[in-house]
Design a protein that fits this description.
alpha/beta; Rossmann fold; nine-stranded mixed sheet; six-stranded parallel sheet; binds adenosine-5'-diphosphate-glucose
């Protein structure tokens, strides 16, 4: 990806994990890693974060590397840090709560303590790397208090924070024992970015309702002597990299192989990290309902669900995996014939070029998270389509991407009937309508790509 005159100032990007990806990397890493490594390629910045490795005793020693045009700086964490900060507060407290799953959120003081400790460790380690003119960009829910920790250590650079996941409604956030401290720590930043206006409005509800603050026309909010600006800045994909991959040789071979194996059946594709927020069980139940209501289409369609396991150390993720194994087995057992299996359920990741070929071979992209900050799979599906014969995107109303991708068939992912109806509509959609919808979707995916996201956020951060 070429960066058109973007950051004049050096960028220091901080996120939990640092995974500079080469274009052909298998991406069972999240969308954040994919997007940031694309964005940082050919810039002169540093990407700082946890190496993913553990060490007996925290030393703060930094592993500095230059890979694929991106300088990365990583640190190892102690096992207790990983348990309390990463598996604990980030993945068992904030992730479920911010995806509206209070029922799954675990509130443990030990987790909160580990979260504060690791954020302080990040600040200690990163501070010597920061030069006076640098822009510091902190990413995601793992690191909300990092800006405050940096300020406490005397950092007066411009610091921005971007939240990749939803911001929860005020009444849900109130269930977090330290909600106020968490929100107040955001006021250490200069700019706070959200994927959609919906998430930003939930944040405003909290600062108005709980902190009794006013929100200015420009999203400005003042508290304890500091003023932050909240902005909406939806993340996109690296179109200039992904479209050529979708049109490349590997994708063409993969697409052809899929077509042969599909044997004239229409393929519906789902690609998600195995996570309860992605609505996989509800999706399978919607497909089950579709099969029940349309016996005429049996043997003519199949669902390819690709779902590489993630966060396998967390029990709820083990449970969802077991649940999906059982459900796909039940549906296949009920409908399969000697020649046809209705669900092909694959628990592994694929290189991006092969993934692009699979998207292209599909007639329907089924993207139905129960709640998602954005969802990059929806955008990748659109970008990978054959412009002369595009597939149809079915998208959850509750994905951030729905605010941009309005020409998709938008569904309520909790409703099996909604999903079943949308599948029938997508599979029977006339070519003219498919073309018109795809063109409008692709215009958006091309216009608001990852470069646009990077430039828009950096511009907001640079503004005095
Ligand atoms: P994620 O929850 O990880 O990201 P998403 O945006 O869909 O979700 O990104 C997933 C990425 O992983 C995509 O690029 C996809 O291609 C890749 N991927 C998934 N399964 C794969 C497989 N089997 N093989 C290869 N690649 C696979 C978080 C938030 C999202 C937000 C992003 C970016 O939860 O809402 O869109 O960050 O901000």
């Amino acid at each position: 990806m070429r960066l058109r005159a973007v950051a004049v100032t050096r960028l220091i990007i901080v996120s939990n994990r640092v995974q500079a990806t080469s274009a052909d990397a298998t991406a069972n890493q999240g969308g954040l890693a994919v997007a940031l490594s694309s964005a940082l390629r050919q810039t002169n910045g540093i990407w700082f974060g946890w190496s993913g490795k553990e060490t007996e005793t925290f030393s703060g020693s930094i592993d500095l590397q230059k890979r694929d045009g991106v300088t990365t700086a990583t640190i190892d964490l102690e096992p207790q840090d990983v348990e309390e900060y990463y598996n604990g507060y980030a993945n068992r407290t904030l992730w479920p709560l911010f995806h509206y799953r209070v029922d799954m959120a675990e509130f443990e003081r030990g987790f909160a303590g580990g979260y504060e400790r690791v954020n302080a460790r990040f600040a200690d380690t990163i501070l010597p790397l920061i030069e006076p003119a640098d822009l510091v960009w902190v990413n995601d829910y793992h690191l909300i208090p990092l800006g405050r920790e940096l300020r406490r250590r005397g950092c007066d650079n411009r610091i921005g924070f971007f939240l990749h996941i939803p911001w929860p409604p005020m009444r849900l956030l109130l269930t977090l024992p330290s909600h106020r401290e968490l929100v107040e720590s955001l006021f250490a930043y200069d700019v706070v970015g959200f994927q959609t206006d919906d998430w930003m409005q939930s944040f405003f509800d909290y600062v108005r309702g709980e902190l009794a603050l006013e929100v200015g026309d420009d999203g400005e909010i003042s508290f304890a002597g500091r003023t932050i600006r909240a902005v909406v800045c939806p993340i996109g994909i690296d179109v200039s990299d992904f479209v050529p991959q979708a049109e490349g040789e590997v994708a063409a071979r993969t697409c052809k192989a899929m077509m042969v194996s599909a044997n004239d059946r229409a393929m519906i594709i789902g690609v998600d990290r195995l996570d309860y927020s992605k609505g996989l069980q509800e999706r399978f139940l919607g497909y089950d309902r579709f099969l029940a209501s349309r016996p005429d289409l049996h043997e003519q369609v199949f669902l390819l669900q690709i779902a590489p396991p993630s966060r396998a150390d967390v029990q709820s993720y083990q449970e969802i995996r077991a649940g999906l194994d059982a459900l796909s087995g039940r549906i296949n057992g009920e409908y399969a014939s000697a020649e046809w299996v209705p669900i092909r359920y694959v628990n592994k990741g694929y290189p991006r070029d092969r993934l692009a070929g699979m998207y292209r071979a599909a007639k329907v992209g089924l993207v139905t998270p129960l709640r998602d900050g954005m969802n990059l799979v929806a955008k990748e599906f659109v970008a990978a389509q054959d412009p002369g014969d595009p597939g149809v995107l079915i998208l959850s109303k509750f994905a951030g991407a729905a605010a941009q991708l309005k020409e998709a068939i938008l569904v309520n992912p909790y409703s099996a009937e909604d999903i079943a109806d949308a599948l029938a509509q997508a599979l029977e959609m006339p070519i003219e309508q498919r073309l018109a919808r795809w063109r409008a979707l692709m215009d958006n995916v091309e216009r608001e790509d990852v470069l646009w996201w990077l430039q828009t956020f950096v511009k907001a951060m640079s503004r005095d």
